[in-house]
Write a structure and sequence with these properties.
This protein is 38% helix and 19% strand. By secondary structure, it is α/β, with parallel strands linked by helices. A five-stranded parallel sheet has the order 11-10-12-1-13, with helices on both faces. Strands 3-2-4-5 form a four-stranded parallel sheet. A four-stranded parallel sheet has the order 7-6-8-9, with helices on both faces.
Length: 312
Amino acid sequence: MSVEKVILAKPRGFCAGVEMAIESVERALARHGAPIYVFHEIVHNQHVVADFSSRGVRFVESIDEVPAGAKLVFSAHGVAPTVWQQAKEKNLQIIIDATCPLVEKVHREVRKFAARGYSIILVGHAKHDEIVGTSGEAPDRIRIIDSADQARGLEVPNAEKIVALTQTTLSVDDTREIIDILKERFPKLVTSAKEDICYATQNRQDAVKQLSKEVDLILVIGSRNSENSNQLCKVARAEGKNAYLIDDHHAIDPRWLEGVKRVGITSGASVPERLVLAAAEYFERAGAEISHIGFVEENIHFALPAEIVSLT
């Protein structure tokens, strides 16, 4: 192996919303024991999901899969009101809402603007769990778009009352072109405040931009269904660096490293730190020097759901 130095990006890994969601499931397991049912994957990481599955957590895609009287946790991505109603109708024993507060904030904005008669443009990926849940707040008023072409072709009933909201796991950079097109086409467009974008998504992308200046290649640790992990790869490639998304160090292809002296490593917001450290150790065993570059210190924490606090 020709790699001489490995630089770990900071910030990386778990965001406050992921920490809150995972701790919610941990406490539910500790208090009630298995099985615990979780609607969707608690976070989009195969290692986290596999670990919980081995301990009796059952991940479901429909309330129909949850037995009456069972214990249920809603994932960090949020759910539509219809899902809440279905859960209540089944008389589930405990419903713990582990929705990320940043996602819940977008849900509230959708309800507010829908009540005022606005057309609501959701910028995001239609099949992503977060967008599925958010759009369920006002399906008759929401249009989902994820490209500049869709923004150019968009038609709305009333251009005087239109608002654009975004999937939280996208960054300002991800949505800038689409929002700019919408603003040009609809001068009365209302947009969400910058703080509605997930701070962790933006911070990790900014760190990758800086990391790209120091290395020849970037490895992003994260699962393929993780939107923010995929975006980290996209950012690195936009900076002119080869970048690969891997679930863990076992997926590293030695051919990627031919002629590479300096490797950067980062991870998506739902990735356990142990996976990053294992990747660093993989290179260290081969003689590479390990260093860190820190750009932003994150000190944000979200309170656990009230249902969890009441269990302690």
